[in-house]
């Protein structure tokens, strides 16, 4: 029997936490909870969960700062819960390293579906054998078999979603990929209209792999269409 995925819920709403604990445990997850950001960070270190569900609006250490601190120590997938519906708040969460967000109020089934989707996208990190295309340029090496990328010899700290996206771009180096193609491949068909995801994850990748993210040489923008990974010969 496969081991249960381990979830860490961080939210100061105790009623919501109890409901999620019951529902997600019945959905065959191992569920752990924390009622504030500081406790969540301690449990993250102790438990090493497979995914974190993180509320934005918490006293003292809010979700934004908690997300930033999690990213300082871990690439664990993060789904943010937010009652804020403004586009700027959604963008802020993705920019800070979240993998997805779910606006409140939400159905428990919706959250479960998002958790399943994120875990499905990131489970390739477990060492399952994969295809072997390798992208090698002067400074950047992307190795799909070893499931890693290196810049100037240093291993890059990439989240599962970031690495999946980078490998997909590298496998299609020289080919223009539309926002919809990228969303379909990396996030799934239910995300094909969420172009914010492609824009922000490309922004995150450029910050990690480019010498000058404002003038990229690896991940190129094809205006009005999408993105193209430069071939090693071009770089």
Number of strands: 12
- The assigned structural class equals alpha/beta
Summed over residues and divided by their number, the pLDDT gives a mean of: 90
Q: Would you state the CATH class of the largest domain?
A: Alpha Beta
Amino-to-carboxy terminus distance: 47 Å
Tell me the helix content.
Answer: 40-55%
Q: Topology as H/E string?
A: EHEHEHEHEHEEEEHEHHEE
What is the count of DSSP helices, taking H or I runs of 4+ residues? 8
The biggest sheet, with number of strands, parallel, antiparallel or mixed sense and barrel status, is:
5 strands, parallel
CATH-defined topology of the largest domain: Rossmann fold
State the CATH architecture of the largest domain: 3-Layer(aba) Sandwich
Which ranges are low-confidence, i.e. pLDDT below 50, for 5 or more consecutive residues? none
What is the number of domains? 2
Strand content: 15-25%
What does this protein structure show overall?
- This protein has 2 domains: 6-126, Rossmann fold (3-Layer(aba) Sandwich), CATH 3.40.50.2300; 134-229, Winged helix-like DNA-binding domain superfamily/Winged helix DNA-binding domain (Arc Repressor Mutant, subunit A, Orthogonal Bundle).
- It has 8 helices and 12 strands.
- It has helices at residues 14-26, 37-47, 63-73, 87-95, 108-122, 160-171, 179-187, 195-209; strands spanning 6-10, 30-34, 51-55, 78-82, 100-103, 134-136, 140-143, 148-151, 154-155, 176-178, 219-222, 226-229.
- The strands form 3 sheets. Strands 2-1-3-4-5 form a 5-stranded parallel beta sheet, with helices on both faces.
- β8 (148-151) and β9 (154-155) form a beta hairpin.
- α2 packs parallel to α3 (63-73), α6 crosses α7 and α6 packs across α8.
- The protein starts with 5 loop residues before the first strand and ends in a 6-residue tail after the last strand.
């Amino acid at each position: 029997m496969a081991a249960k995925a381990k979830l860490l819920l961080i939210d100061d709403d105790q009623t919501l936490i109890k409901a999620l604990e019951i529902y997600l445990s019945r959905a065959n997850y191992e569920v752990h909870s924390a009622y504030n950001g500081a406790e969540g960070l301690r449990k993250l270190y102790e438990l090493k969960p497979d995914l974190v569900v993180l509320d934005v609006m918490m006293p003292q250490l809010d979700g934004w700062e908690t997300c930033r601190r999690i990213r300082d120590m871990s690439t664990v997938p993060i789904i943010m819960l937010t009652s804020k519906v403004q586009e700027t708040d959604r963008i802020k969460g993705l920019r800070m390293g979240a993998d997805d967000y779910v606006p409140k109020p939400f159905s428990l089934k919706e959250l479960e579906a998002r958790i399943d989707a994120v875990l499905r996208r990131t489970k390739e990190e477990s060492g399952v054998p994969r295809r072997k295309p390798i992208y090698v340029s002067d400074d950047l090496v992307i190795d799909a078999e070893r499931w890693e990328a290196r810049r100037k010899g240093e291993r890059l700290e990439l989240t599962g979603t970031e690495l999946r996206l980078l490998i997909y771009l590298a496998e299609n180096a020289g080919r223009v990929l539309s926002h919809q193609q990228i969303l379909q491949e990396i996030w799934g068909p239910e995300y094909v209209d969420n172009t914010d995801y492609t824009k922000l994850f490309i922004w995150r990748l450029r910050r990690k792999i480019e010498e000058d993210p404002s003038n990229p040489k690896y991940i190129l923008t094809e205006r009005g269409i999408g993105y193209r990974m430069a071939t090693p010969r071009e770089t």
